[in-house]
C-alpha cells in the first residue's frame, strides 16, 4: 500500500510542479526580468559586469521546468509518506479531505511562515556577502516552523481523548503560533533592498513566489487526493463480513 501511495505521490508532485512552472512563467518571470535589467544597469555603472554562465532563456525555460519537476516529485514522495501516516488517524475523513488538509498545513508551515519572516527576493536585492547568513536564517526559521508543527501535532494526539478533537486542535494551533511567533521576534530582520529598486516589482515578485508555492501545494493536495481516492475506493466499498451475512 505504501509503495502504491508513494508512486502516486511522485506522479502528483510532477503534475503539481508542471502547474507551478506555468504559473511562474506567467507571473514570476516578468518580475525577474525587471530585476535582472536593474542589476545589469548597476553593474554597468560600476563597470563590474560578469559573464553570463547560463543564458536567461535556459534559466527561465528548461532550467526552471527541471527544477520544479524534481522538487515536485521529491515533495510528492514525502507527502505520500505523511498521508500514509495520517490515513485513519483523522476521524472518518476520506483520502481527498486528508490530502487537502495535509497540503494546507504543509503550505502554512513550510512556505507561508518562513516567508513571512524572510520573504523571497528577486535578483539585485541583497548583498552578496550576506547570502550565506540569509540562507542560514531562512532555514533556521523553516526548521523552527517544522518543529512547531510537530509539537502542535503531538499535543493534539495527547489531548484529543481528554478534551475532545476540536479543543485539542485549537490547543495545537496555539502552540504552533506561539513557537513561530517567538522565533519571528527572536531572529534578526534583514532589509537589504536598494532604495532605488521598485517597491511594486518587489511586491509582485514576493506575491508570485507565494503563489507559485500555493499552486504547487494545492496541485499536490488535489492531485494526490484524487489518485489516492481511486486507489483506496475499492477497499472502502468492499462490504464487511458482518454485513454480508
TrEMBL record:
The keyword Membrane applies. Signal peptide: none annotated. It holds the Pfam family CbtA. Keywords: Membrane, Transmembrane, Transmembrane helix. The keyword Lipid metabolism does not apply. The chain crosses the membrane at residues 62-86, 98-116, 136-156, 168-190, 210-228. This is Membrane protein. It comes from Aureimonas endophytica.
Amino acid at each position: 500500500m505504501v509503495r502504491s501511495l508513494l508512486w502516486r505521490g511522485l506522479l502528483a508532485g510532477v503534475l503539481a510542479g508542471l502547474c507551478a512552472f506555468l504559473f511562474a512563467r506567467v507571473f514570476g518571470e516578468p518580475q525577474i526580468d525587471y530585476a535582472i535589467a536593474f542589476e545589469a544597469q548597476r553593474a554597468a555603472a560600476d563597470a563590474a559586469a560578469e559573464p553570463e554562465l547560463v543564458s536567461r532563456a535556459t534559466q527561465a525555460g528548461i532550467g526552471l521546468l527541471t527544477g520544479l519537476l524534481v522538487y515536485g516529485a521529491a515533495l510528492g514522495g514525502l507527502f505520500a509518506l505523511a498521508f500514509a501516516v495520517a490515513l485513519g488517524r483523522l476521524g472518518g475523513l476520506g483520502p481527498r479531505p486528508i490530502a487537502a488538509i495535509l497540503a494546507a498545513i504543509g503550505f502554512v508551515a513550510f512556505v507561508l511562515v518562513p516567508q513571512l519572516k524572510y520573504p523571497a527576493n528577486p535578483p539585485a536585492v541583497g548583498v552578496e556577502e550576506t547570502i550565506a547568513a540569509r540562507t542560514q536564517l531562512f532555514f533556521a526559521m523553516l526548521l523552527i516552523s517544522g518543529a512547531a508543527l510537530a509539537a502542535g501535532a503531538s499535543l493534539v494526539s495527547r489531548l484529543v481523548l481528554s478534551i475532545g478533537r476540536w479543543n485539542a486542535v485549537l490547543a495545537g494551533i496555539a502552540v504552533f503560533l506561539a513557537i513561530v511567533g517567538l522565533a519571528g521576534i527572536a531572529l534578526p530582520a534583514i532589509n537589504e533592498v536598494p532604495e532605488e529598486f521598485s517597491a511594486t516589482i518587489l511586491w509582485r515578485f514576493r506575491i508570485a513566489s507565494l503563489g507559485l508555492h500555493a499552486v504547487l501545494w494545492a496541485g499536490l493536495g488535489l492531485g494526490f487526493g484524487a489518485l489516492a481516492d481511486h486507489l483506496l475506493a475499492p477497499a472502502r466499498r468492499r462490504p464487511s463480513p458482518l454485513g454480508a451475512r
